[in-house]
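Tutorial, part two.
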Amino acid sequence: MEHQHRQDEDIVRLLAPRLAYFAGVARTEHVTRAAHEMQVPQSTLSRAMVRLEKDLGVDLFARHGRTVSLTPAGRTFLASVERALGEVEKAAESVRADADPESGKVAFGFLHTMGTETVPGLLRAFRADHPRVRFSLVQNYGEAMLEKLRAGELDLCLTSPVPDAPDLVARRLDEQRLRLVVPEDHRLAGRRRVRLAEAAEESFVTLEPGYGLRRITDDLCAEAGFTPRVAFEGEEAETLRGLVAAGLGVALLPPPAVPRPGVVELTVTGQRAVREIGVAWLEGHPDTPPVAAFKKFLLSRRGKLLPEPAGPTG
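Running the prediction step on this input gives:
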């Protein structure tokens, strides 16, 4: 089987450069005319056709002086060759289109919490100067996006915490203050500011393990001297806010895009309760012009990446 696979690879390597020549000769049924159209010496073309037939062990052409006609085997072969060459052409056009500085494509990943307001605002500002650049947008949690970067499925991602890995380049762009979100009838709801230790006995609703915000929550609670008692784990911050509003626990969350009724958002004091947002890309990965332009744009937003949050309530 291994030997067969190697043979197949060898035949592909032998055939590939000659297929376009074969299609040209088959189309014109004239070696001289095909050589002229393709701008290659006639001798090169003739030799390529002889070698192609020899490697395949099949006569593709019946020769009549300078003119040629396809044999039945040649006609069968031509149908497949034209499909294959069409696919190669489509592939080339596709990657060139994606790299076009004016209308190319950027595969961009970001956290769910940034999809409501932050990312739409960024894209609108970028497209003011690059109206035809297209985006493939992926919302996911941090670790999943870093895997997609490594797999070549994403060009850039906005994530938190800012990754620190030898195969990635990451730049810190901004930070969000996290708030302790409590139900509006909660014992702490009358306060504007709170130390996290005061919530040590509460049930928490958090993101699932593996999410950056969950790690930050666990770390901040540990720093405040307790392990949070987790009642619910979810995948999305606004769902957690809904659980808090329903009285099912408290949560450490970034500011909402739109203030939510039923909850009170308290400023956390006594420790630095923030999450840093950064942009990451694969080290050494060549950028197409549209990716380079969008990367430069993101880096220019350092310190002003995020919209102004609604003020804490309470």
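The chain has a mean pLDDT of 87. In part three we will examine how such features are distributed along the chain.
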